[in-house]
Design a protein that fits this description.
The chain is α+β, with helices and mostly antiparallel strands. The chain contains four helices and five strands, in the order E-H-H-E-E-E-H-E-H. The protein has one domain: Aminopeptidase. The chain is globular.
């Protein structure tokens, strides 16, 4: 399958929000549109769109430059905040192509590593990350305390 990868544009906002909703359904499409509006103006955030040659969307990935990320040695560090591929097109190289494009861009910007995470029980995501060249660095359980 031929795959085109490019950075997201404001004109992609609706389809981007719909794909984000499929990955993170705790927010509505409208709330994702608000997030996207803020992200488009943020130099620390970059998002990529995977398309077929006929411009049908296949998936997306988002990177944020964080000051710190568990398991990384450099600061600041690019962090893969999310990646989603249409289920009909998974295991066909779309994710790998997205990660390769992001990697090339990050190397060009002078970065030496990228970090990501996945839920501790999300074995499908663990396998995908390993297939994309990521290595597990540590397992963490996060805690919180409500302050009232």
């Amino acid at each position: 399958m031929s795959i085109v990868i490019r950075k997201m544009r404001a004109s992609d906002s609706q389809i981007w929000a719909e794909m984000r909703f499929k990955l993170w359904d705790s927010l509505s499409v409208e709330e994702h549109l608000g997030d996207i509006g803020r992200m488009l103006g943020d130099r620390k955030r970059t998002s990529y769109l995977a398309l077929r040659p006929d411009n049908a969307p296949l998936g997306f990935a988002e990177i944020c430059i964080r000051e710190y990320a568990n398991g990384c040695t450099a600061q600041p560090v690019p962090f893969l905040e999310g990646i989603w591929i249409d289920p009909k097109h998974r295991r066909q190289g779309v994710g790998r192509t997205l990660v390769e494009k992001m990697t090339a861009d990050l190397i060009e910007q002078g970065f030496h590593e990228i970090c990501s995470d996945a839920g501790i029980r999300n074995r499908r995501s663990h396998r995908a990350h390993q297939n994309w060249g990521f290595a597990e660095t540590q397992r963490v359980i996060f805690f919180r305390k409500i302050l009232r």
